[in-house]
Fold:
Amino acid sequence: MIFDALPIEGAYAVRLEKREDERGFFARAWCQREFAAHGLAATVVQTNIAGTRRKGTLRGMHYQLASHAEAKLFRCNRGAIYDVMIDLRPDSSTFESWYGITLNAREDRMVYVPEGCAHGYMALADDTEVMYLVSEFYNPDAERGVRWNDPFFAVSWPAVENVIVSDKDGSWPDYAGRGNLPDEEGDR
Structure:
């Protein structure tokens, strides 16, 4: 695997190193030793798959409180997505910055989202499917979010005719700047 640093501290595009022959190819998509050698979360406790029926469907921007913070390794297996992370770590050099990257099934690229970042994506094609590894078990009581169109972050999403967002993802409160995020369990 080849790790290319992204503009968010601790985030990477991870490219597969294919070994090809007349039969096709082989590549590692996960190696605990390689992730640990880069100082990244090297424990995987869960693998998730999400299918999205319609282009323009947006999922996110989610994060877990610090005691349950998740690192994620995202790959698009079918279709295409615009993947976005927002750095919500006050001690990070890229605090309150966002970054977006297009992932699709044709490219040999994944994205590593570090703990403490809100994360979400928009489907750029009908019948899109993603698979992602997670470093921490999901805890619904620790889930929080940032609204996908919060003016504080001004994420530049791809232009689509109809953005489809769940009621939950569309109703997160305004962020409004430093210190606005809850840091304790039970704060909302």
Remarks:
- The radius of gyration is 16 Å.
- The domain at 2-170 is CATH 2.60.120.10 (Jelly Rolls).
- The first helix runs from residue 32 to 37.
- The CA atoms of residues 73 and 112 lie 4 Å apart.
